[in-house]
C-alpha cells in the first residue's frame, strides 16, 4: 500500500573541496569541486537524501542552499507526499513565476531535482528496498560504466589510470583545439585494448560547421559517441546536419530541461544517446520518464553526472531500474565529495559498477570526513 509522508524537516549542505589539478572544460575551469546535498525528513522520522547540481556558476553551491531555505522550504514543509512524481509537478508549477521573475530557471529546476530525489529515497527506505528495486524488482545489481572527466591533454595517463582501476570504457573532454584534439583522439583510439571503447565530449564547444569538420577528422576512428558537439539550444536543423555528416553517434541531454525538450529531441532522432542529469532537472521523476521514452524509441539512456556521491548513487539506481544497454558515467578525477560515498565500485574483471545493497540510495548520513569542506548549511522544520 502506498505510504504518505508529511514533510517535517528540510536540510541542505554546501561543500567545496580544493583540488590540486583543476577540471578544465571547453567553456570553463572548475578550480574546486562543489556539491549540495539535501535531506528531507517526515514527521515519523523517515528520511531521504538528494543532490543538487552545483558545478556552475562557480559560486552556485551556497546560492542553491539559500534558495532551498528561503523559497523551497515554505513549499515543501507540511506537505503530504504519496507520489513524488506528482509532487515534482506541483513544485515545478508553484515555482514557475518565481523562476520567471528572477530569470533563475536553472537554480529552481536543480533544487527541485534534489528534493525529488530525496523523496524517492525516502519512499524506498520506507519500503525497505533499494531505489532500483522499488522502481523495478528485476533491476540488475551491477552496471556497465565508463571513466569520465579525462582531459584530452592528459588522456594517455588518464586512460592508463582508469584502465588500471578496472574501467573498459573512457570519455575524453575535447573542444579546446579542433585539429589538435582530433589528432589526439585518433592516437588514443589506436591504443585501445580489445573490448575497450573511447567516447568524446565537446561540452558545446563547436558551431555546426566546426563540429562537422571535427567529425570528418575522426570519421574512420572507432569512437563510441561525440557528446554535445554544438550548443544544446542550437536549431534542430543544425543538429540534423551534424548527425547526417558522420557515422559517429551523437549524445546529449544534460542541458535539456523539461519533458517537452526531451520529447522533441527523442522524436527528432539526431541523438542516439539521451543523457539527462538527475541533479540538473527532473530528479528521479523526470529522468525516469525520459529514460523510458528513450528506450521506447530505441535510443539509449545514459545518465549524465559529474558531482558528489549521492547523485552518483541516484544515477546508478535509476539506470539499473531502466535496464537496457546504457552506461553509467563515473568521474575519475579526484573528488572526496564523491569518493567518500563510493570509494571503489568498479569490478576489475568486468568493468561494471556496483549498485547499493542498502535501502534507498544507500546513504544514511553524510561521511564525517567531509565536515572540513562544508561552507554552508541550513535546517528548517515545522
UniProtKB/TrEMBL annotation:
A matching Pfam family: MR_MLE_C
Keyword Magnesium found: yes
Protein name as annotated: Mandelate racemase/muconate lactonizing enzyme family protein
Mandelate racemase/muconate lactonizing enzyme C-terminal domain residues: 156-249
Keywords, sorted A to Z: Magnesium, Metal-binding
Matching CDD domains: MR_like
Originating organism: Hoeflea poritis
Keyword Secreted: no
Cofactor names: Mg(2+)
